[in-house]
Amino acid sequence: MRSDETDPVDARLGARLAELRAEHDWSLGELADRCGVSRSTLSRAERAEISPTASLLNRLCAVYGRTMSQLLSEVEAGPETVVRSAAQSVWQDRASGFVRRSVSPPHAALRGELVEARLAPGADLAYDRPPVAGLEQHIWILEGALEVTAQDTEHRLDTGDCLRMRVWGPTRFRCAGPGGVRYLLAVVRP
């Protein structure tokens, strides 16, 4: 894709973000105050001039009461009961080295979802809040090592390890090995 072309997923995501803001009858300034992101960045994301980072989407999901998978599924085609590997939605935060594949067929009314995540060597993702308070997460390491910090407790996870946690505050995911890490994230909304 040429640099002057807009990614179709970013375009649909930007349009959905603009719709959500309009549904809440918020100005860019009001949304900026609620999520702690500049009006300029929000405007550029809504117009698909930038590809939103995982941190930005997390802040917006928190304001709108959605998980990231819910938001991303809203910009995909209609609900399916089976989604083939080749059709699974992949989103990446190029700035942080985070790649996220929505494994579960999207369905806004269901509470659980599976996500395959990859972090590049040295990647470090910090979220200042969960998208939904009390979100349950199961993190199963498929390859590599991951450090997860939640509620001021750090967990080092290696291949085969699984962590279950409820998310109430800030979290951090850091690739802990010399190579990348690949993990399965099971998310259950409260």
UniProtKB/TrEMBL annotation:
SUPFAM superfamilies: lambda repressor-like DNA-binding domains, RmlC-like cupins
Keywords from the named record: DNA-binding
Positions of the HTH cro/C1-type domain: 17-71
InterPro entries associated with the record: Cro/C1-type_HTH (IPR001387), Lambda_DNA-bd_dom_sf (IPR010982), RmlC-like_jellyroll (IPR014710), RmlC_Cupin_sf (IPR011051), TransReg_Diox_bact_type (IPR050807)
Superkingdom of origin: Bacteria
Protein name: Helix-turn-helix domain-containing protein
